[in-house]
Amino acid sequence: MIRAYSVNDHTLVCTPLPSGAALPANTIWIDMFEPTVEEDAHVETLAGLSIPTRDEMRNIEDSSRLYSENHALYLTVPILFAAGTDTPGIAPITFVATKEHLVTVRYTEPLPFTLYAARSAKPGNDLVFPKCDPLTIFFGLIESVTDRIAELLENVVQRLDAESTRLISGSSDKRPMSTKDFRLALKLIAKEGDFLSKIRESLSGFGRLLAYLQSSPAVTTDRPSHSTWLKSLERDVQSLSDHVSYLAERTVFLLDTVVGLVSVEQNGIIKVLSLAAVVFMPPTLVASIYGMNFSHMPELAWLLGYPWAIGMMIIAAILPLVYFRTRGWL
Fold first, then answer.
1. Order of strands, edge to edge, in the sheet holding 72-81?
2. How far from the centroid of its chain's Cα atoms is residue 240's Cα?
3. Beta strands in the chain (DSSP E)
4. For the chain, what percentages of helix, strand and coil (3-state, to nearest 5) are there?
5. What class, spelled out in words, does domain 266-327 have in CATH?
C-alpha cells in the first residue's frame, strides 16, 4: 500500500496511490506500507530513488543502515510496534529523504505514524506549514516516536509501582502470597524487562541516527531550525535512555525481591517440617519402646500403663518445643 501526503496550506492531505498513478501536486511524504515489487518499482520511477528491500533493511551494520547516495539520505532505524498489546515487537523502518520527498518503507504499523498523520491532517496542528521540507516531516515523525516512547515508559513506571507495592505491602486481602502469586510476579516483571530491552534497542538506533545526522551538512546547514530540532531530539533520546536504564535496574531489584521472598517462604516451610520431625521424634521413640513384643515389661500388667505411655509421649513432644522457644528458634 502506498499513501501520498501532500501539503495543503497548514495540513497534510493523504491520497492512496494506486500502481501506475502519478504523484499528487505538492507531495512531500510517500509512505510505503508492505510494498510489493511492483509498488517498489513504481515509487522508484516517481521519486528517482532506489528503494531498499526488506532484507537490506534488516542489515545490522551501521554503514548499511545510515548512508547517503545520490544526494539522498537513507536512514534505517528499529521502531516499536504493537506496544499496547501483549506481544510488542520491534522492526526496522527506512526513511529516504531528498530535497523534494520523504519516503518511508515499513512492514509494521507503529502507532506514532498513525498519530502523526492524523494530527497533521487537522488545521492548526503546528506541524506543517506551506514551505516545509521533507526533513520537517521526518523530524516530526521521529518526535512522535519519542513522545510515544515517553508515554510507554510512564505506563511501565505505573505497572512497576503497583507490583512493588504488592510485593512489599502484601496483597489487598492481607493473605500470604502463594506460589501462584510469586509465579505471576516473576512473569510480570520479566515481561516488563523484555519490553524495556526493546525500547532500549530502539533508542540506541535513534541515538546512532541522530549522531549521523549531526555530521551531515545537508541537515545542519540548510535550515538553522533543523539543527536546533536535531539537538532537542538528541536530548530527548538521551533522557529517555537514562530513564530506561533506571527502570531496567528497578526490574532487576524487583526480580531479586521476588527471589528473596520465595527463599524466605521456602525456608519457613523447611523450618516447620524440620521442627515437626524433631518434635515427633521423642514420642515416636516412646511409642516404639512400648510397642515391643516382650513378655516381661512391668507396664504391661500395670493398670496405669497406658495413660503413663501417652503422658510420656506428650511430655516428650512438649520439651523440644520449650527448648526451641527458649533458644528463640520459634
1. 11-16, 2-8, 27-33, 102-106, 89-97, 72-81, 66-69
2. 13
3. 2-8, 11-16, 27-33, 66-69, 72-81, 89-97, 102-106
4. 60, 15, 25
5. mainly alpha
CB contact at 8 A, 255 and 183: no
| CATH domain 1-132 topology | Beta Polymerase; domain 2 (3.30.460)
Say which DSSP state 295 is in: S
Asked if 159 and 126 count as a contact pair (C-beta separation under 8 A), the reply is: no
Tell me the DSSP string of 47-69: HT-PPPPHHHHT---HHHHEEEE
Nearest to 272 by CA among 315, 329, 327: 329
And the C-alpha cell for 34? 508492505
119 vs 101: CA distance, rounded Å? 20
- Paired with 6 in beta bridges are 13, 27
pTM, 2 dp: 0.77
- Alpha-carbon span 165 to 185, nearest angstrom: 12
User: Is the CB of residue 128 less than 8 Å from the CB of residue 92?
Assistant: no
- Using left for φ > 0, alpha for ψ between -120 and 50, and beta otherwise, residue 74 falls in beta
Beta pairing partners, 67? 74
Residue-wise pLDDT for 184-237, tens only, equals 888 888 899 999 999 999 999 899 888 888 877 666 556 667 788 888 889 999
Domain layout of the chain by residue ranges = 1-132, 266-327
Ranges under pLDDT 50 in the chain: none
Q: Is residue 111 a contact partner of residue 83, using CB atoms and an 8 Å limit?
A: yes
- Please list, in sequence order, all residues whose beta carbon lies within 8 angstroms of the beta carbon of residue 115, skipping any fewer than 6 positions away: 144, 148
Query: 91 — phi, psi (to 5°)?
Result: -145, 150
Q: Contact at 8 Å (CB) between 298 and 267?
A: no
The x, y and z cell numbers of residue 247, run together, are 527502570
